[in-house]
Design a protein that fits this description.
Mean pLDDT: 88
Shape: globular
Radius of gyration: 25 Å
CATH topology of the largest domain: 2-enoyl-CoA Hydratase, Chain A, domain 1
CATH class of the largest domain: Alpha Beta
Structural class: alpha/beta
Number of domains: 3
Helix content: 25-40%
Strand content: 15-25%
Length: about 550
């Protein structure tokens, strides 16, 4: 099977996994929701964002492999509203009435972090029955951070807007309660700390939904509703006008055309971007010199087989133009050759790139990366990390040669770099190599994975082999005969377990990335991220930790 055929199989499976997320609670509950005259979460988003504009869905596979519905009963992503890039969060009422489970909370926290780091207004499309009560012990304590994040966002002058379409009960009532602007749908919004049954039980008082928490009551009596919408479409219209009046910087239309969500799409992440020159900050760009579609031909089915990351780079960065000269200016090409470093532009945005070539990071690669990261911080240039590494080299000669201190220098540089970081895990991302290449633990602004990616403390065979060696040594020290048959079974079980746990869906399900993407969408996804990042200011790191020499 060719590389392309193998990757197309993975992409088809990825589309199937995304289709599960798009389906929400399933046809039965979607039909029931529509029968009530309501729109689904993605339909609301599609009407909210500018026609034909971008919507980059984040963490669509949250909760994958758990007991909860894939997608975690909420849709989050970055969309353009009245020319302004916003973080959008929409409860999915077709999944247990939009109730929040532990993965919902984690997914919203990640969205809040992205909004904070990139100075994005937040628009919440609210229809939630509150916490999933059977899992309340996993939600109640950490869930309070949601309200803290909302009020801190307001304090940072990052506007928060709540469009309330249905239930917003118990703790969920504080989402509109702590938002800067609120829009309630007449006859639909129901916002109260305790519904009629709870009020009856707690106080003996008889009440109904409308008098207790209806939209009109909150607009006329309590003052919680700033705007009373006649229906869902009117609420979305009002929400768009609120964003239009925020006096926020408008985005570059050239970077966001052609990306839109769809209630029927099997690929919620992105569609193909329409190409046009960037007009933001005077940026211009040329299309890549090589067709991004041919990325599918590059990635081997066996991750042990190396591939040249320069061939990936030339397919995602801006191509040759009269102004740019070369698409990629490589830095230190003859030194530390298993790590490629250099400068490029992506949709007109300058970036520095670190990309693994032969998989292993040696001392030379670590030192080269350290210098390159420092240079990027001197020039205030964002960094893109393209992962395909098995980690830092081990062995007597390498330990004596200082691989630990050189690897520590690279980790030091990554940790204290203050320019924005983006990461894409193309293939392997094992061990401390994941850290050195700016994995999730090191807080990149955005991190995406390809369907070919795998990430773990080490490869399945290596981990199983280490456990076997340790067990064999323990048996020998006790003078016991080693169980070879049991060892074979143990190795097979561990290899299968590690293989399953290191797959991209499993990692994405735990929110260790921001989504699994089709490699052909990489340039578009990164362009959206850079467009978002460009609205903020940053200064390269002025100081680093002690570099051990």
């Amino acid at each position: 099977m060719s590389n392309r055929e193998a990757m197309l199989e993975k992409i088809a499976d990825l589309d199937a996994q995304h289709a599960v997320a798009v389906a929400g609670g399933g046809e039965k509950y979607v039909d029931r929701h529509h029968a009530r005259g309501k729109l689904t979460a993605r339909e609301r988003i599609e009407l909210l964002v500018d026609p034909g504009s971008a919507f980059l869905e984040l963490s669509p596979l949250a909760g994958w492999g758990s007991d909860f519905t894939v997608g975690a009963s909420v849709v989050t992503g970055i969309g353009v509203i009245e020319g302004v890039e916003c973080m959008i969060s929409a409860n999915d009422p077709t999944v247990k009435g939009g109730a929040s489970n532990p993965w919902t909370v984690k997914k919203i926290f990640r969205a809040s972090q992205i909004a904070e780091e990139n100075d994005l207004p937040t628009v919440s499309l609210v229809e939630s029955g509150g916490a999933d009560l059977p899992t309340q012990k996993e939600i109640f304590i950490p869930g309070g951070r949601l309200f803290r994040d909302l009020t801190r966002s307001s304090a940072r002058k990052q506007p928060t807007i709540a469009l309330v379409f249905g239930n917003s009960t118990a703790g969920g009532a504080y989402v509109p309660g702590m938002s800067d602007y609120t829009v309630f749908v007449r006859g639909g919004a129901k916002v109260f700390l305790g519904g009629p049954p709870l009020v009856k039980m707690a106080t003996g008082e008889e009440s109904d939904d409308e008098s207790l928490g209806g939209a009109e009551m909150h607009a006329r009596v309590s003052g919680l509703a700033d705007y009373l919408a006649e229906d869902e479409l009117d609420a979305i219209r009002i929400g768009r006008r609120i964003v239009a009046r925020l006096n926020r910087r408008r985005t570059n239309p050239g970077l966001v055309t052609g990306l839109r969500p769809s209630s029927t799409s099997r690929k919620p992440m992105v569609d193909e971007v329409a190409q046009r020159p960037s007009r933001d900050r005077g940026l211009s760009f040329a299309e890549p010199d090589a067709d991004p579609d041919t990325l599918l031909d590059l990635i081997p089915t066996d991750l042990k087989e190396p591939f040249d990351p320069r061939e990936v780079i030339v397919r995602i960065v801006d191509g040759t133009s009269e102004r740019n000269g070369r698409p990629f200016d490589e830095f230190k090409p003859l030194y530390g050759t298993s790590l490629v470093t250099g400068w490029a532009q992506l949709h007109g945005h300058p970036i520095g790139i670190l990309a693994n070539a032969q998989g292993v990071l040696f001392s030379e690669e670590a030192q080269k990366a350290t210098q390159f990261i420092q240079l990027a911080n001197q020039s205030d240039t964002p960094l893109l990390f393209l992962h395909n590494t098995t980690g830092y080299m081990v062995g007597k000669d390498y330990e004596q040669g200082g691989i630990i201190k050189h690897g520590a220098q690279m980790l030091n540089a990554v940790s204290n770099s203050s320019v924005p970081h983006l990461s894409v895990i193309m293939g392997a991302s094992y061990g401390a190599g994941n850290y050195g290449m700016n994995g999730r633990a090191f807080d990149p602004r955005f991190l995406f994975t390809w369907p070919s990616a795998k990430s773990a403390v080490m490869g399945p065979a290596q981990l199983a082999g280490v456990l076997s060696i340790v067990a064999r040594a323990a048996a020998e020290s006790k003078g016991q005969q080693y169980d070879e048959e049991g060892d074979a079974g143990m190795r097979a079980m561990v290899e299968q377990m590690v293989e399953e746990q290191s797959l991209p869906y499993a990692l994405s399900g735990m929110l260790y990335d921001d989504g699994v993407i089709d490699p052909r969408d990489t340039r578009t996804v990164l362009a959206i991220c850079l467009s978002v990042i460009s609205k903020t200011s940053w200064t390269g790191g002025q100081g680093f930790g002690v570099f051990r020499t």
